[in-house]
Amino acid sequence: IGRWHAGHESGCYEALDDLAAVPKFLGRVGKHGLAHAYIEGHPLRKGERVPDDFFDKLREAIAAIHQRGMAYVDLEKCENVIVGDDGQPYLIDFQISWRLSKWLGGELFPMRLLRKRLQQSDWYHIRKLQRRTRPDLMSEDDLKASYHKPFYVRAHGYLTRPITKLRRRI
User: Strand pairing partners for 12?
Assistant: First the structure.
């Protein structure tokens, strides 16, 4: 499983290597690891006042990821967004990102629908992150939408929370 996860995440980094918001992929490390360039900065924190254009740039990065038929999926954890010392957003940790090639069925109906839902959850989580850091830059509609958790995000929590708790206990 570790090799599969490392291979999947490596593939994501390689597919996004030209995006400014994704650290440069440096390669695999052993069977289970990978390395990317170090970003001077710190993980996004709740209540942090990021630059005014931070979320515009984060939305541009997510849009570029979606245009490549992927979904980031892991924006629920604000620690996966690095606030660079240059004030720019950087995305790390693509382990659970959605990336399924056409030859593996990624364009078949059920997979397209799942990808679309995961991409929609990316947009929800960006609004939620912005509400927690820079709500002053949000429109009234976006602010309201940030409090409305879509059913598929709630369902994911109900399904995975018990597994996560068990895994942490073990």
Answer: none
